[in-house]
Amino acid sequence: MSSSEPQKSGDPSRLASAEPGSGESSQGPRPTWAKAPDFADRPALQAAVRAQTVVDKQHYLDTGLTPLRCQTCSAQVLVRKSSAHQTSVQWTERPDAHCPVFAQLSEHGARPGRPESCPSLEKSIKWAVDEGVLDVGE
Q: Counting Cβ atoms within 10 Å, is residue 99 exposed (0-12), middle (13-18) or buried (19+)?
């Protein structure tokens, strides 16, 4: 980029040129930074980013989930095994309403989802993987 080209506030080179703690860069006041630029000055790019976000949410939250019932309490969850070490579990209803482990924890003040699973559900997921009911990603 030549020095005569204006830099956008979300331009990483502008952020990198600021001295830490100075609040100033060689181009003037340091821009405020959010986790990601909003691209308000580039509507086509903003629309593309929003569209991709919808696709990403669909992929990471819904794609590849397999319905599975716990073999102990019959609570139904949605499960995805992205790898041998990574398992995503989405409950279709409140865990403490169907799972005795979560119900007992809830009675003692624990919030649903803490712990993230129960031993019986983990055994059911392992069985589903071993039997080929649940695919494991790479």
A: buried
